[in-house]
Amino acid sequence: MPPRREAPGAIPLVLHAALSGLRERHDVTLVTAYGDEAGEREAVEALRRDGVDVHAADRRSSAGAAARWRRRAGLARGWAGGRAPWRTVWFAAPGLQRLLDDLTATRPFDVVAAEDNSMGWLRLPAAVPSVLTEHEVRRPRPIELRPAPPVAFARQAVGELDWRRWPRYQREVWSRFDRLQVFTERDAQHMRELAPALAGRIDVNPFGVDVGEPVSAADERPGSLLFVGNFTHPPNLDAATWLVREIMPALRRSVPGVELRIAGAGDDSVSMLAAPDVRVLGEVETIADELARAAVVVAPIRTGGGMRMKVLHALASGKPVVTTARGAAGLDVGGSDPPLAVADDAAAFAERTAELLRDVDARRALGMRARAYVLERHTPEAFARRLETVYEAAIAARNGA
Questions:
Q1: How confident is the model at residue 63 (pLDDT cuts 50, 70, 90)?
Q2: Cα-flanking dihedrals φ and ψ of residue 308, to 5°?
Q3: 217-378 CATH choice from 3.40.190.10, 1.10.3720.10, 3.40.50.2000, 3.30.160.620
Q4: How many CB atoms lie within 10 A of CB 96?
Q5: In whole angstroms, what is the distance from residue 184 CA to residue 114 CA?
Q6: For residues 205 and 157, what is the distance between their CA atoms, to the nearest angstrom?
Q7: What does the pLDDT look like over 122-131, one tens digit per residue?
Q8: How many CB atoms lie within 10 A of CB 367?
Q9: Residues of CATH 3.40.50.2000 domain(s) within the chain?
Q10: How many Å is the Cα radius of gyration of the chain?
């Protein structure tokens, strides 16, 4: 997917921060694809207008119901007949390989940097050092099947089969790269466990974010909480469910008038969490307005890997954040303590949130420290400097130096 300064998901934001930082110091060629998701084609055109050397493959569905069903059938056959997880089958675009082949046949490159293991199906130029950024390591886990109607149960079963493809697929993909980059030490440890022979190739490099202006404190609504996420992603749905069912009851008792706003794509599973003081907004046009309205941003993440853009974005906006240890993963660049509140059980999470809701001076001071922290450690420029170190290690590994 193409890098975007404004996007409903985290990956385009991470890609844009990396691209922005690297372009200041290097010649960067971007190979990407755009699909049917709103704003992707426009993002490619915006990059071109901004002077980015971008080469994009079109993976949009053909017009018409018959063509869409043919594409779906082809994707299903590709998944059933192979070993790759569904996410990789979905994002595969033959045009990407043609673009990559044409570019590397006609231009010299110092390094190829692949973002996400969904690009693992690509044939990379053998002579060029390569780096893979693994956005989230998938670990083996027990089978999770819940009683459900036949259609839903069948969907669960396919999902479990798909999950069991990840360990082997990840190991196969990782082995092809000179260096492997992850955003958190937790994911690095999981990678070492899954592929011990590759441990010497792993680098931990927390990502950056495009830092705009801080949101206006004048727009804040006392008692207002915000949780942002893509709620088709199971860890975010789990967090929202825990927040509404176990944390909000304690907050209602201690902070009269508290209101929770949940923003981001989702389905009926998240819509069912709505209540008089819990508003499920769905996708919003711009998250900045919701951040400005919130007195406190919460991210009660209990599962999943990777680093959380929602947390870093809120810190960059100058908002106080309450999250879990898992939600704060990757923010401790250089062993520093990020300025946010951390709690890992429902009672403590509610207590820390209530303290900030009741104390306007404390939450504003925490928000100011949070923004200063991001400006020092997580800007595109800071991210790019760390990326350079990883790329240099890949070049050195290939050269035997």
A1: low
A2: -105, 110
A3: 3.40.50.2000
A4: 20
A5: 18
A6: 35
A7: 999 999 999 9
A8: 27
A9: 217-378
A10: 22
Using CA atoms, how far residue 397 sits from 28, 178, 345, 375, in Å, is: 21, 7, 44, 32
Instruction: Decide if pLDDT at 141 tops 90.
Output: no
For residue 289, how many C-alpha atoms fall within 13 Å in the half-sphere facing its CB?
Answer: 6
The alpha carbon of residue 329 and the mean position of all alpha carbons in its chain are separated, in whole angstroms, by 13
Alpha carbon distance 187, 373 (integer Å): 23
Q: How many residues does the chain have?
A: 401
Cα pseudo-dihedral 72, 74, 77, 83, rounded to 10:
-100
Give the pLDDT of residue 276: 95
**pTM for this predicted structure:** 0.88
Q: What's the mean pLDDT in 105-124?
A: 92
Residues forming a β-bridge with 275 = 278
Please write the tens of the pLDDT for every residue from 167-217.
999 999 999 999 999 999 999 999 999 999 999 999 999 999 998 888 888
pLDDT tens digits for range 207-244: 999 988 888 888 899 999 999 998 988 899 999 999 99
Residue pair 321/298 in contact (Cβ under 8 Å)? The answer is yes
Pairing assessment for the beta strands 321-323 and 341-342 based on DSSP bridges: parallel
In the block, tokens 């259609």 appear at 151
10-208+381-399 maps to which CATH number? 3.40.50
Q: Read off the pLDDT of residues 283-329 as tens digits, 9 standing for 90 and up.
A: 887 888 999 999 999 999 999 888 999 999 999 999 999 999 999 99
Q: To 10 degrees, what angle do helices 360-377 and 346-358 make?
A: 110
How many beta carbons lie within 10 A of that of residue 113, not counting itself?
Answer: 21
Count the neighbouring beta carbons within 10 Å of the beta carbon of residue 306.
Answer: 23
